[in-house]
Amino acid sequence: MSRVTLDAVRKVYPNGFEAVKPCSFRIEDGEFLVLVGPSGCGKSTLLRMIAGLEDITTGDLSIGDRVVNHVDPADRDIAMVFQNYALYPHMTVRGNIGYGLKNRRTPRAQIDAKVDEAARMLNLVDYLDRKPAQLSGGQRQRVAMGRAIVRDPALFLFDEPLSNLDAKLRNQMRIEIKALQRRLGVTSIYVTHDQVEAMTMADRIVVLNGGVIEQIGTPAQIYHSPASTFVASFMGAPPMNLMTAEVADHGLHLGDGAPVIAAPNGYRGPVTMGIRPEDVRVGTGAAQFDVTLVEELGAHRLLHGALAGQPFTAHVLKDVAITPGTHAVDLPAGALTLFHPETGARL
Amino acid sequence: MADLTQTAARTETLRPRAPRIRWATVFDHAILIAGAALMIVPLLVMLQMTTIPDAQVMQHGPSLELGDRFWANLRKALFESMSFSGETTGLTMFRNSMILGLGFALGKIAVAMMAAYGIVYFRLRFATFAFWLIFTTLLLPLEVRIVPSYEITQKLGLLNSWTGLIVPLIASATATFFFRQFFMSVPEELVEAARIDGAGPVRFFIDILVPLSRTMIAAMFIIMFVFGWNQYLWPTMVSTEEGKVTLVQGIKQITQSLEGNHIPEYGRSNVLALLAVLPPVLVVLFFQRWFVKGLTESDK
What is the sign of the dihedral through the CA atoms of A199, A202, A205 and A210? Predict the structure, then answer.
């Protein structure tokens, strides 16, 4: 089966920069795994190591049961979709999609049949004789997809494939890619810096920061129980509110204010307290929220301001009319996540 | 009301007006036309001289008269030998020039492309150094190194051979430089996509890089063909065989061999000169279309 296993895979560039610190995880057969993180976090390097375009400094990479560290990219049974599509500009769509098969000495008739099938799947039948320059961005993206699926590989690799498209097309292609992957059932690794793409497409997400895996989990796990302040602030738009607070015996303080809630069991001392904007209850409660700006988003509103002197954002539905000013808010105990104030790890 | 005034304004702008003369454009064209006329005058004079008897040129100097000798001169230039061995007709010289032009153009393009491919795409230890070494040879044109070049060619026993005429000059720093710059502008992702598609170094070169470079190849072909076609010094040095005389050498030979008591065969040599101009002009005209096409629809 096409299970991918990374065992302490590490990348150090010749100049001594450690782009990826030892990483170990496993991608199950048919799974859609998203690598997400800010630029320079090592996600693309990790993907390129899996593709075989970068050497692995130490550690083992296996696809299926085979260690492929020193296997040529062409022989790893993978297909990759690039950010800039990387279509061959002088070849027609048909030529582009069939090129990989041609290099593998597939009989002509079989190439044509497979290209036609892929083109049907991607709505490219009418464009098979065009050159990439005559296609729109979305169509080029589809050709790049076609080049990947026609080879029927064990593993799809996507390197930020949607970042060159406009927002509307991106949403549409996101759904198409996901649906296609479901239908084909091919194990996929998808790199993006867009947390919305990560949340919507992934079966599981790997959040990377500075070459280190911050958390691996399903989108729901990542969103609702972030392992660190980094994950909490990176995933979700607007991000989780992170505030310095202190847990004392009689309750949790925000700054100098009164205890917000009863003290949770266990930890005592300074903490970073996190709460998602949509978990904040506006209108009741002990804390005072100074709203300075209301962002109208149609289905809901975002309230920006300060709580106990620290920046704070709350999310209310469209039927809750709020004007700038001071409002009472409640921070439900069940919605709070506490992090270590220095390491940022969840307590 | 507002609508009405708007339509009124629009009809006014649409009313036919006397076409305004843009003097700047007229001036530009005047300069260009004057330049073009100036350039073509020598060619026209040559053409005129091929139509009159040679003696008339000696007697009257330049004239505007058109005679009836053009076809006779053309026939003489193309088919009549001008040497003892009988091998040096216009046609054979034309063929020889063509071999040199094509040999230089194709050879230089092939060698330069492969050199640039090696420098850009392979992890060579001294790639940059090697490139600059090649580049500095631009400072050493043929005229500077002609004696050692001749000596090497002679010691290799390549005198009087096509190999000796073409191969010693086949390396081109200019073309290598241009191809290097072009290859460096080809996106890295194309290489990676090709690697994943199972294309090895040779396949990538032939299937992707060569077709992508076709506009660059066309440009280099123009330059290198004209360079090879116009070679005079090197063929004169390396080849003494009459069967390998090129057009450019041939023109010189006519005026040279017919000095003395004879009247120089102006008509014949001018036909040859026109013949020598023609292929480079055609090459430029033909590849220019490609060149412009490639530049406008470029999408790398």
Answer: negative
Predicted confidence (pLDDT) per residue in A202-227, tens digit: 999 999 999 999 999 999 999 999 99
State the nearest Cα–Cα gap between A280 and chain B, in angstroms: 46
Name the residue in chain B with its Cα closest to that of A147. Answer: B197
Q: What are the distances in angstroms from CA A102 to CA A94, B42, B190?
A: 11, 55, 17
Phi, psi of B197 (to 5 degrees): -75, 5
pLDDT at residue B113 above 50? yes
Cis? peptide before A238, omega within 30° of 0: yes
Nearest to B76 by CA among B243, B265, B258, B279: B265
**Amino acid identity, position A232:** A
Summary mean pLDDT of chain A: 90
Tokens of B195: 């690697």
For chain A, say whether B206 makes contact (Cβ under 8 Å). no
For residue B300, list chain A residues with Cβ-Cβ distance below 8 A.
Answer: 89
Strands A204-209 and A32-36: parallel
Predicted local confidence at residue A87, as pLDDT = 93
C-alpha angle with apex A166: A186 to A126, nearest 5 degrees? 65
**Interchain pair A103, B299: CB under 8 A:** no
Span A257-285, mean pLDDT?
Answer: 80
